[in-house]
Structure formats: C-alpha cells, structure tokens
Design brief:
Radius of gyration: 19 Å
Distance between the termini: 45 Å
Number of helices: 8
Strand content: under 5%
Length: 209
C-alpha cells in the first residue's frame, strides 16, 4: 500500500482513489484502464493522482492489497461463526472462488505481460498466500481437536491443499492469451474445485467418521 504521511484528508482522498480505481479495473482491466480516466472520475488532475501513485501499476498493486485485506477480513468473520471444519473449508472455497474471479476482472492482462508485473506484486502475493496457509491450518486444527481429521503435519497439508487449488486455477488458464475466464470456464473450474475438496475432506477423516 502506498504510504501517505499527511493529514486525515489525504487518507480520505487515498480511499476515494482506491475505490474509484477498483471500479475502473473491474470494468476495463489493468491494460485498458487509464490514470487520466480515473483522475477525471475523481474530479482531480492527473498530476494530483500521480502525487499518490507514481504509475498505474503501483495503483493496481494498492488495489490488489485492498482486495486482499477485504478477503481476509470477510473470511475471518465468516469462519469465526462456524465450528464444523468441513463446512469451514467449503466456506473458504466459496469466498476464495469469488475473490479469484474478482481478481481476474481487475487484471484481464495478457499472460505474456504478467512477467513484467510479477516483480511488482510478487511480495504482495507471497504475504497473502502465507495468510491463506495460516487460515487453512487453523481450520485443519479445528478438525484435529474435534477428532474429525487425522493429520500429522497440518501446516504441510494446508500448503499442499493451496498448491493443488492453485494448480487447478493455472490449468484452466493454461495457453490462454488473456488472463480471464468466461462463464462456462469459470463454472467448470468451480465444479472441479469442489469435487477435489470433497475428496480432500474425505481423505482427512478418521475411518470412524
């Protein structure tokens, strides 16, 4: 997230910029959204927008971080109201798939251009994935404590679980020119993901369960 060390008015303006940028990226994707149009919607000059963000990619990074924070907060709130570990995993998948689709809409860049963007947001994604592993590990520990799941190394299993989910997503995007899924492709990914989750949960359970 960009660091603004001024008054509350600047922080308010920053939040306005991020909200407006979210809408533009969702409508046009990273490639077609422009700083000029975002500034115009905010009724500020492009120069004023550059005061907060040096370029469009830095603004996109800040929007991604905002989306990640909102995802983690929503997921934490939902899971705090649940006690069944199987249902908690399904809830995680429901929210995660919606988040993945939102991120596809926010980017829609060509996969060949992803390499140039990866160094900018690489650390952001690593931190986000670390948080995800922690959340899944907590869910697995709930199942262990309830004597529902039999797992010797919950952290390793959580990492494996997320790696497989990532593999399913990458497989759907394989050889696509644009980082985007249509309705049919997205529905297929959702179905395959929940099929995997069903098998995964079954494999974790004690035989008596």
């Amino acid at each position: 997230m960009v660091s603004i060390t001024h008054s509350g008015e600047n922080i308010f303006r920053l939040n306005q910029i991020l909200s407006t940028a979210q809408k533009h990226f969702a409508l046009y994707g990273l490639e077609k959204a422009t700083m000029r149009e975002i500034a115009s919607d905010l009724n500020i000059s492009k120069g004023a927008l550059y005061y907060y963000f040096s370029d469009k990619e830095q603004l996109y990074k800040a929007v991604v971080e905002k989306e990640q924070e909102e995802f983690i907060q929503l997921l934490t709130e939902k899971l705090s109201l649940m006690s069944d570990p199987g249902e908690m995993i399904h809830e995680y998948i429901e929210i995660r798939m919606k988040y993945f689709r939102k991120m596809l809409n926010l980017s829609r860049f060509r996969l060949q251009d992803f390499r140039s963007l990866k160094p900018l947001i690489g650390d952001t994604w690593i931190q986000f994935q670390t948080k995800e592993v922690g959340i899944i590990e907590q869910i697995l520990n709930v199942g262990i404590n309830q004597n529902i799941f039999f797992i010797e190394k919950p952290h390793d299993v959580a990492q494996l679980f997320l790696d497989i989910l990532k593999g399913l997503r990458k497989n759907e995007l394989h050889e696509k020119e644009l980082f985007y899924l249509n309705e049919t492709e997205y529905s297929g990914l959702v179905n395959r993901t929940f099929e995997f989750v069903k098998i995964f949960i079954k494999g974790l359970k004690h035989k008596e369960n």
